[in-house]
Every structure is written in C-alpha cells, then in structure tokens.
Amino acid sequence: MSPQPKILLVEDDDFAAATAAEMLDSDYIMQRVTTGQTALDALAKEQPDLVLLDVDMPGMSGYEVCRALRDNPAIGDLPVIFLSGKVNEDERLAGYEAGGDDYLTKPVSAGELRTKIKLQLARHTERIRLKQDMSGAFSTAITAMSSAAEMGAILQFMRASFICQDYATLCREVLNTLGSYGLEASVKIHGQQGSVSFSSNGSCSPLEDSVLTNMYKQGHIFEFGSRTSCSYEHITIIVKRVEGEDMERRGRMKDNLALLAEGVDARIVSMDSGITVARQHATLKKLMESTSKALHDIEQSHRDQGIKSNQIFNELQKRFDNSMISIGITQSQEEELANMLLDAASQARVLHDEGLKTGAHMENILEQIERATRQSAVAIP
Predict the structure, then answer these.
(1) Cα gap 10→69, rounded to integer Å
(2) Are 284 and 373 in contact (CB under 8 A)?
(3) CB 119 within 8 A of CB 98
(4) For 20-34, 45-59, 84-98, 111-125, which range has the lowest pLDDT when averaged over its residues?
(5) What is the crossing angle of helices 62-70 and 89-98, to 10°?
(6) Would strands 50-54 and 194-199 be described as parallel, antiparallel, or unpaired?
(7) Edge-to-edge, what's the strand order for the sheet holding 102-105?
(8) Is residue 196 helix, strand or coil?
(9) What span, in angstroms and rounded, lies between the C-alpha atoms of 345 and 366?
C-alpha cells in the first residue's frame, strides 16, 4: 500500500463526486469514473486500495459492478463501500448480497466517510496479513507432513531390515525406501559375507560398482555433478538428485540419506556379529561333542580298569592264600600280610571311585556349558 491509499470513486453525479473528493483529497489519491463498465476497466488496469461505489448509475448498477468485481480472483477482496440516496432496509440487504463491505446514505458527512474508509482499509490490511500467515502456516504444515512421511519411510525400513539375513535383501530394502522418495540410487554393501551392489535397475555394472567403491573414500556426504553419495563403514549409497528440487527438500534428503545409511551400517554389524557368534557356536558345539565322547571313553576305560583291578586283586588273594600253606610263617604274620593286602585293595578301590566322581563332575560341567551354548544360539540375530 502506498503512503497515500488510492480510492476509486464510481459516481455519475458531478456534484456528489466533487463533494466526496473535497472530503478526501487531502489524505487519499482519488480517481473518478462515471459508469460501471469504466470502473471495471479501471480496476483491470490498476488496482486501488478501496472502491466508493454509487448504486444508481446508467448502464450497470453499483450492485452489478460489485458482483463482477467479487467474481474476479485478482481483485475480488477489495473493500467496497456503497454510496446511495436510498435508505430502506431492502437496499442495504441488496448491497450486502452483492458483496459490499459497508453502505452509506447520501448525503454523508465527512467525518463518517473518513471513519468508514479508515475502518475498511484497516480490515483489508488485516485480511492480507492473515492470508499471508495462513499461507506460511500451510507451507509449514505441508513441510511437516512431508518430513513425517519421509521419517515414516525410514522407520519402516528399520523394521524391515531386522528380518533381512543377507546383504542382497538389505540392498533391495534400501532401494525400495529411496524409491518411495522418488530417488534413483545405487547401493554397495560389504562385510563378512563379501560385497554386493545393486541399483534401481538391478545389479550394478562394473563401472558403477567401481564408482561406489571410490565414493567410500569421500566421507559421509559428498556431492558430485547431479549426484550425492553417502558412505559409512559398510555401505555406500549414491542418489541422483531430483531436478528443480528446492534447497529445503534437498537438505532433508541428505539428513534422511545419512539416517538410512547409518541404520544399514548398524544392521550389517549386527548381521556380521551374528555370523561370527554362529561360527563360534558351531565350533564350540563340535568341541563339546568331541569332549563328551572323550569323557565317555575315559569313563568306560576307567570302569574296565576297575574290573581288571578287582580281578587282579582277587587272583592275588587266591595265590596269597595258597602260598600261605607252604610258607613257614606264624599265624600273626600271616594275618598281618593279609591285612596289608586288603588295605592296598581298599585304597585302590577308593582311588578308582574318586576317578569316577571326577568323571561325573566333568560330565555335569559339560552339560551346563552345552545348555548355555544352546541358549546363546537362540539369541543370535
């Protein structure tokens, strides 16, 4: 709005027009036309800040002019004050239905006219401000909804990544997520399972794969030509930027790309850790099986040795008893030798039993280790 607001006066009566101009010339830039059609022509060329509109004019009436003005989106919100010599209620209602903002009856006083004009100009300024605020709020809301949708795609990927058990499946999930953003991309993943690379069109060509490998050295975010790369320890993503993309969306895409790559990197670490644990579990299981077999063999050998030891002591006892008949020793000496023999046999049995207890203890430890190993296997991702 200019320092002096511009008013378009639509009045066919020269005296009424001169009177209105005299009231307003000091504060407003005045432009006068005498018919409804010339008013619409003037409005199409240069937009005023307010329209003072006579009701009874040759040709188009003031009501018809107002309705035509309201139907034009470019000027449809201009404030319109009707000036009329008619004072009945029906005329006021007609002015309201035509889209007028106020209705003044001729002759109007200078004070009332100035007050009404100031009020309508202030209301118009407030309407413009509110429209701008609403436009800004709408834009903010659209941006917030877009951001929420983009973040929702990231969260959906995170959920889907937990069921991915190989790099190829994980690559395809990344490409699907980026595709939901309308982005063409290439992805390379490498880790303990080797390396795989895919693009939106399938497996990467040798050249595309080599570019992905080289981009790994360029840091987390790197822009070249029309593309942006994002790299973490186990993943590199290259996306083709959307033509005409605004800076705000490009910034969000970089953030989302980094979140996606970081999530993939964490999932690869988890997958590789699971593979390591699974391998360790398999090795430990084999070791447990061989140890268990060895303990069973030792136990059986120990039992066999116990049986043989009993047989040896029994045979020795028989030979001792037979020898005592021909050896010239006293009864007491014979009893002492027999007791010594029985004591030795008893100690040998105790030693054998201790060996059996040790074997049983080792078996128990082995069972506990095996149970813990089975539980850890369940936790492998």
Answers:
(1) 13
(2) yes
(3) no
(4) 84-98
(5) 30
(6) unpaired
(7) 29-33, 6-10, 50-54, 80-84, 102-105
(8) strand
(9) 32
Please report the DSSP string for 238-272 in residue order: EEEPPTT--HHHHHHHHHHHHHHHHHHHHHHHHHH
CB atoms within 10 A of CB 155: 11
3-state secondary structure of 25: coil
63-77 tens-digit pLDDT: 999 999 999 988 888
Q: Which residue has the higher pLDDT, 117 or 250?
A: 117
Give 116's pLDDT tier (boundaries 50, 70, 90). Answer: very high
CA distance 202 to 220: 24
Give pTM, 2 decimals. 0.43
Tokens representing 87 are 């004072």
pLDDT mean over 4-23:
94
> Which 3 state secondary structure label does DSSP give 235?
strand
Beta-carbon contacts of 348 under 8 Å, excluding residues fewer than 6 positions away, are 309, 313
pLDDT surpassing 50 at residue 163: yes
Distance separating the N- and C-terminal Cα atoms of the chain: 67
Residue 381: asked if its preceding bond is cis (omega within 30°), the reply is no
